[in-house]
Amino acid sequence: MTTPIDPVVIIGAGPVGVACALLLAQRGIASVILERHREPYALPRAVHLDDEVFRILQAIGIADEFAPKTRPMPGMRLVDGRGRVMTEFTRDTGDGRNGFPPDSMFDQPDLERILLHKAAEVDLIDVRRGCQVTKVSGGARPVVCYRDLAGTTAAVDAVAVIGCDGANSAVREQLGITMRDFRFDERWLVVDVLTPAPLDVWSGVHQICDAHRAATFMPVTGNRYRWEFRVHGDEDLDALRAEDSLRQLLSPWLSPTALAESEIMRHASYTFRARVAHTWRDGRVFLAGDAAHQTPPFVGQGLGSGLRDAFNLTWKLADVLDGVAQDSLLDTYESERKPHATRIIVMALVVGWGLTGGQDRLASIRRALVAAACHIPRITSAVPDASPALRRGPLVRRRGFRSRLNGTLFPQPWLRTPDGARRLDDLLGTGYALITRGPLRDHTAYRPAANGLTHVDVDALTCVPSSNPSPSAVMRSRHTHAVLLRPDRVVMASARTSADVGGLLSAYQRVHRTDLEETPV
């Protein structure tokens, strides 16, 4: 492996930017992070992540340290304007198919502290704070110019640039990239409170479907709680943030005495938007996180989408910089992540449309439909997961109904090993992996190792008992003998029989030897 002389420049030291740097460092790629703020932002922002995103944190190497600072979330209740529960969407709080609870609550400053502490221990990561980026050139050899706290200007020659600089991205503006606007703009007041003692409330998310004022209430972690209240178009925000107004808004949960004893950590207004950048790449310059997409918070996937960007992009960029894949591999970043992020945004818009009641003449009809749906038996089991499968493309080979695993994350069980219980990904390393049911045939047994692939026979694994089916059972139910996993643990291709395993190995070789033409497996 050859490390590029020039670093990857990452603009923005939020969770997405630092995640990119840590994932690249695992592959021996150096990075410089330019951050305009002198100190990390200490106030709460994101509070939810799902098990797929937790699995990304595992790949970064911080999941075990971060887990004690999270709380499994048991689901969501829909509550009417009088505080009556309309229905409850429950979630299992045990480890799910990805090796973590399906939904977890957390405080973003906790996550950022862990990420930054780990980055500080890595020699390949150079974090420069107080640096305002002034110019970014696109193309094959980008250059980033910036001004530091002393007013000194400098330039960094980069092998690639990743713009993780938020919704008002300077990188996106510099490159002249415009955004598709779904024409959703709603103002919400977000209030974070630290109470002296835990509140006597259900520990899931409460969605208040109230025509007068839609709201969301979430116990976060410890004694930290969040409320989000929709702001009507003609309301005075300063008046709404005043002490008397806050006391009235929080009165269903906090008495005046309890509020007086609590600390209001933050109250801020946000405009929730739904937008996606028209292009995510200009040569070797990429957009990620809020710079590439912004979603309303109704399915809790804002930060998660950004971390998915980081994981999807960095292994591809590392393969290209290592010289084991063609530059065209980088085209699959946008072609995979843009449709995925767009579908999540549309899902958030639909959920928000139904749950928050709306502000137009159809609001009463929506509330009636939601109320009626809540009385349909097993309606909660019909709620889809927030993250859809990746579409067919050069890195996702589909061959009809029986390849339903392709484009999805391969399940990650807990395994019994001589070293104790471990998750599957811990055995797979950072590269591609071949998973089979049973040993390889003699004439193919040497090929995975010869091609740098990790091979695992799931029939030889001992899974820790759980309510989730074993990987072997999942593969058997899909009539699948073997799967080829990408470094992000997405199933790239599958084989029905042992005789077809050679096709998976050939598919892997084509990715690393050609320009990703869509040749059938």
How would you describe the overall organization of this protein?
The protein has 521 residues and is α+β, with helices and mostly antiparallel strands. The protein is 28% helix and 26% strand. It is built from 15 helices and 26 strands. Residues 375-384 and 514-521 have low confidence and may be disordered.
Distance between the termini: 28 Å
* Sheet of most strands: 8 strands, mixed
Distinct helical segment count? 15
Give Rg in angstroms: 24 Å
Q: Beta-sheet strand percentage?
A: 25-35%
Tally of extended strands? 26
Unreliable runs, pLDDT <50, ≥5 residues?
A: 375-384, 514-521
Instruction: Report mean pLDDT, rounded to a whole number.
Output: 89
Widest β-sheet, arrangement of strands: 6-5-14-15-16-13-17-20
Judged by helices, strands and strand pairing, the structural class is: alpha+beta
Tertiary shape:
globular
Helix content: 25-40%
Quick overview:
This protein is 28% helix and 26% strand.
Structural descriptors:
alpha+beta; single chain; 521 residues; 8-stranded mixed β-sheet; 15 helices; 6-stranded mixed β-sheet; globular; 26 strands
Question: Layout of helices and strands, plus pairs?
Answer:
Elements: E1 8-11, H1 15-26, E2 31-35, E3 48-50, H2 51-60, H3 63-66, E4 71-72, E5 75-80, E6 85-90, E7 103-105, H4 108-120, E8 125-129, E9 132-136, E10 143-147, E11 153-157, E12 160-163, H5 170-174, E13 179-194, E14 205-209, E15 215-219, E16 224-231, H6 237-241, H7 243-249, H8 256-261, E17 263-277, E18 281-282, E19 285-287, E20 293-294, H9 302-321, H10 331-355, H11 363-373, E21 414-417, E22 420-423, H12 425-428, E23 433-436, H13 447-450, E24 454-457, H14 471-477, E25 482-485, E26 491-495, H15 501-513
Parallel strand pairs: 1-2, 1-12, 2-8, 5-14, 12-19, 23-24
Antiparallel strand pairs: 3-7, 4-7, 5-6, 9-10, 10-11, 13-16, 13-17, 14-15, 15-16, 17-20, 18-19, 21-22, 23-25, 25-26
Helix pairs in contact: 1-4, 1-9, 9-10
